[in-house]
Design brief:
Chain A: InterPro entries: Peptide/Ni-bd, SBP_5, SBP_5_dom. The complex is a heterodimer of chains A (519) and B (326). Chain A has helices at 2-21, 46-55, 102-114, 147-151, 182-185, 232-240, 255-260, 290-299, 302-309, 338-347, 368-380, 393-402, 419-427, 447-456, 462-479; strands at residues 26-31, 60-62, 68-70, 73-80, 83-88, 125-132, 135-140, 193-199, 203-208, 223-228, 246-248, 264-279, 314-316, 354-361, 384-391, 407-412, 483-495. With 519 residues, chain A is α+β, with helices and mostly antiparallel strands. Chain A folds into three domains: 57-152, Dipeptide-binding Protein, Domain 1 (Dipeptide-binding Protein, domain 1, Alpha-Beta Complex); 191-263 and 496-517, 3-Layer(aba) Sandwich (D-Maltodextrin-Binding Protein, domain 2); 270-489, Dipeptide-binding Protein, Domain 3 (Dipeptide-binding Protein, domain 3). In chain A, helix 8 packs antiparallel against helix 10 and helix 14 runs antiparallel to helix 15. Chain A is globular and about 70 Å long. Chain A starts with a helix and ends in a 24-residue tail after the last strand. Chain B is mainly alpha-helical and 326 residues long. Chain B has a domain at 91-297: Orthogonal Bundle (MetI-like fold), CATH 1.10.3720. Chain B has helices at residues 2-26, 33-37, 44-54, 60-72, 86-121, 126-140, 143-157, 183-216, 219-227, 231-269, 274-284, 287-315, 321-325; strands spanning 170-172, 176-178. Chain B has a two-stranded antiparallel ribbon. Classes of the chains: A alpha+beta (519), B mainly alpha (326). Chains A and B meet through helix 6 and helix 12 of A and helix 2, helix 3, helix 7, helix 10 and helix 11 of B.
């Protein structure tokens, strides 16, 4: 009898100990929005990519210092000018239990080429050629320097899982931008987490995938509950009160609070989104004169805006490419000199100034409307009278497409993390056929700059390419093609013990699979 | 009575037709839904294709008649964001909002009657002055500020109550998620209900107080007092009953307004109801959802007003609904 009790007691203790050892680590995350769909190809947005990094894995991914890290592709080599051979990792399983093969990559690539959002990024890619189960070639139509950049967008999908028809006869592979589809509600990837519960706009619950290939990772989170909290003060309050463990973004007004609060840590990083103003040369004759554009650049106090309006939560910029990008030229310094600006205006024959209209959104970028107000008042010092109108982004973008004001604000993040992308969309000669200058509301056009961009797009030597792109930034700076203000910083708030500083990056997709939480 | 109801139904249909027309007419000014559907670098050509697919390039009349045709079959369009029929989305969010309104109503009814009566009977005590003073503050501070203040006091500083969301909900009657079944649910609904009640409660306290004071001056109360009836009976049976008529009228209208106020409260508390959903829909230019929401809320207004009229008839025998229907 005694013995029995002892055995039972031992049993209870072991059970108790093992439950302690296996205590689930749950992390509650609050973002300002939740992913629009479980389909990784439906919308090219931060939310979708965030989800992709949790439920899927890319072939390669960016590290904190913007280098490439092998993920599903274990190695790769350039075979000829237009072909890169990738070798897949062994023993990678999808959530469904299917094995990852090169055929899945081919299937995913074909689907990406069909996606209205993603096909632009893959326009120069012609084919994925399967060599064997674990090997495939990624082929471009011309020598292309951004093969690996683009490979960060290839998150192989489980082709067997997405093949076939649903009960109501729809193709499971169907990619629908609006409306219901199999892929928007069901998911099978190779990623560290599976989606176990999802109510759109309310919460998504992720569970650790037991068969995850990356056993070397120290990540120990078993469960993530992602809740969208739209209101900035509420999101911060939820972190401070301990209702959630990790929040993003942290609004500039609350940075100090999160940092100084005992139970929480603030993590910040320079971001890659540049905020700019464009000066429409088709609407205002004076903007055709480079001296006037320079004068505006000299009149705008970038550092002051970062300091006073952004509360230090930005990196003062003088060009589009942030540090770490190939085209970033550290020699280009922000210009601020009101006297010089006045002289330039006088030289151009506009000493008495002129009147312009200006538009900016009020809910798209951090403090966008306040920045616009500050710029408007700075321009009044050189006698440019600004009629400013700010509006919600939903109304702003149609206005932007109409080029409805003389000066318009636009922020840009390069999808490829590459310098040429800024010029292609923001300052290249507008051309409907190629899509260049789609967001160039300034109508700035410089053949030499465009030639440099085109040459850089087929130059695979990083050194030569960097020189070209830096020269390009230099031209835009000299000519004051647009007014660069700053790169928005990124900020995350985490409860102490949640070691998020190791998993964040400038792209704002924290790698939750690698998140370590103190038990 | 029946004639009155039939008339009301026709009024309701007319009101909702007007709302749908207005909703449809303003949707072009809300922004371009495509912007929210596709990434920034997507070309104009692809946007146009999608616009054609969605039927956004058709004429206003064509779009509106198509909408009406579908609406007659119970289809108010499909939300771009939720990818579900707009009506389903709203009905799914409705319980959260109605429970919030219910919570606030309970607080208002439970507090406004005793407070209103007390301040009317004893207008000069310190407590009465305090109540009136606080009610002025309550009316003057916007709901979202009250809400944020309460979060910082009760969630962040004291840590007593959760700061956002609905917490543990229990599904009852098939589709209705309720907050009132668990302790966690009660804890989650308390702050939002208080915030929502913060505007209406002072209003009702003041309304009941004013009406009550007037009634207390009337001849029959004086007579009752002279007759020696117990004060409690005078106040709560004779006086209060006559005070309630205008209160019910205002209250009915205000319940509808409260549904509208939930937009602010729900946004601050991340309450997954239809007010929050509506604001999000406006931000995302989810036009089918916006129009559907306007119609549903219009319907709620018509409904509450009809019910109030019916109750009015019951409370006040001089109101003759049968005649009003004629």
């Amino acid at each position: 009898m005694n013995k029995l009790i002892r055995i039972a007691a031992a049993g209870v203790m072991t059970a108790a100990l093992s439950t302690v050892a296996q205590a689930e680590v749950t992390v509650k995350v609050a973002y300002d929005a939740d992913p629009v769909s479980l389909d990784p190809h439906e919308q090219l947005s931060g939310g979708t990519l965030q989800l992709s990094h949790m439920v899927f894995d890319p072939l390669v991914r960016w590290t904190q210092d913007l280098q490439f890290e092998a993920r599903l592709a274990q190695s790769w080599e350039q075979i000829d000018a237009t072909t890169t051979r990738f070798h897949l990792r062994d023993g990678v399983k999808f959530h469904s239990g299917n094995e990852l093969t090169a055929a899945d990559v081919e299937w995913t690539f074909d689907r990406l080429k069909e996606s209205p959002d993603f096909k632009g990024i893959f326009s120069l890619f012609t084919d994925v050629k399967v060599i064997d189960e674990d090997t495939f070639d990624l082929i471009t139509s011309e020598p292309y320097p951004l093969v690996l950049h683009t490979a960060t967008y290839i998150f192989p999908m489980d082709s067997k899982f997405y093949t076939g028809t649903t009960d109501d006869g729809k193709d499971k592979a169907e990619l629908v931008k609006h409306g219901d589809s199999f892929a928007s509600r069901n998911v099978s990837g190779t990623g560290p987490f599976t989606v176990s519960e999802r109510e759109q706009g309310v919460k998504v619950v992720f569970d650790r995938f037991g068969g995850y290939w990356d056993t070397a990772t120290k990540g120990n989170v078993d469960k993530i509950v992602l809740t969208p909290i739209k209101e900035d003060p509420t999101r911060v309050a939820a972190l401070l009160s301990g209702d959630v463990d990790f929040i993003a973004p942290v609004p500039p007004t609350d940075l100090k609070r999160v940092e100084e609060n005992d139970g929480t840590n603030l993590i910040t990083m320079p971001g890659t989104r540049i905020i700019t103003f464009q000066m429409n040369q088709n609407r205002v004759e004076a903007f055709k004169d480079a001296r006037v554009r320079q004068a505006i650049d000299y009149a705008v106090n970038n550092a002051g805006i970062v300091d006073r309006i952004m509360r230090g939560f930005g990196t003062v910029g003088a060009q589009a490419s942030p540090a770490g990008y190939l085209g970033h030229d550290p020699a280009l310094a922000p210009r601020f000199d009101v006297e010089k600006a006045k002289t330039l205006m006088a030289e151009a024959g506009y000493a008495d100034g002129f009147e312009v209209t200006m538009m900016a959104p009020n809910n798209r970028y951090v403090n966008d409307d306040k920045i616009a107000q500050a710029v408007a008042s700075m321009l009044s010092k050189i006698n440019i009278k600004v009629d400013l109108q700010t509006m919600p982004k939903a109304q702003y973008w149609p206005k932007f497409d109409e080029r409805a004001a003389d000066m318009m604000m636009i922020g840009w993040h390069s999808d490829t993390e590459d310098s040429a992308n800024f010029h292609q969309f923001l300052s290249a000669c507008p051309d409907e056929a190629t899509g260049n200058g789609q967001y160039n509301s300034g109508n700035y056009c410089n053949a030499e700059a465009d030639a440099l961009m085109n040459a850089s797009n087929s130059e695979t030597d990083a050194g030569k390419r960097g020189a070209m792109l830096q020269k390009l930034e230099g031209i835009l700076y000299e000519e004051a093609a647009f007014i660069p203000l700053h790169w928005q910083n990124l900020a995350w708030g985490a409860r102490k013990g949640v070691h998020a500083e190791a998993i964040v990056n400038a792209l704002n997709f924290p790698y939750f699979g690698d998140l370590v939480v103190d038990k | 009575m029946l004639a009155y109801l039939v008339k009301r139904v026709f009024q309701a249909i007319a009101v909702m037709l007007v709302i749908s027309l207005v909703g449809f007419a303003i949707q072009d000014n809300l922004g371009d839904p495509l912007r929210e559907l596709v990434g920034q670098s997507v070309s104009e050509e692809v946007r146009q294709e999608l616009r054609d697919e969605l039927g956004l390039n058709d004429s206003f009349l064509k779009q509106y008649t198509r909408f009406l045709g579908n609406a007659l079959q119970g289809d108010l369009g499909t939300s771009y964001f939720f990818k579900e029929p707009a009506l389903d989305v709203i009905l799914k969010k409705l319980p959260a909002t109605l429970e919030l309104v219910l919570g606030a109503t309970l607080i208002i009814v439970g507090l406004s009657v005793p407070l209103g009566v007390y301040t009317a009977i004893k207008p000069n005590t310190i407590l009465s002055r305090l109540i009136m003073g606080i009610s002025i503050v309550g009316i003057s501070i916007p709901v979202f500020l009250t809400a944020i203040l309460m979060i910082f006091v009760f969630s962040v500083e004291f840590g007593w109550l959760p700061s956002y969301g609905r917490g543990d909900v229990v599904t009852v009657f098939g589709h209705w998620d309720t907050n009132f079944a668990t302790l966690d649910g009660w804890a989650h609904i308390l702050l939002p209900s208080l915030a929502l009640a913060s505007i209406m409660l002072p209003l009702f306290v003041r309304l009941i107080r004013a009406e009550m004071m007037e009634v207390l001056q009337s001849e029959y109360v004086k007579y009752a007092k002279a007759k020696g009836i117990r004060p409690f009976r005078i106040y709560f049976v004779h006086a209060l009953k006559n005070t309630l008529l205008p209160v019910i009228t205002v209250g009915g209208v205000q319940i509808g307004t409260m549904v509208a106020y939930t937009i602010l409260t729900e946004t601050v508390f991340q309450w997954p109801g239809m007010g929050f959903m509506f604001l999000e829909a406006v931000n995302r230019v989810d036009t089918p959802l916006i129009v559907a929401y306007l119609i549903v809320v219009g319907f709620i207004f018509v409904l509450t007003n009809t019910v109030v009229d019916l109750i009015y008839g019951l409370v006040n025998p001089t109101v003759n609904l049968a005649r009003m229907g004629a």
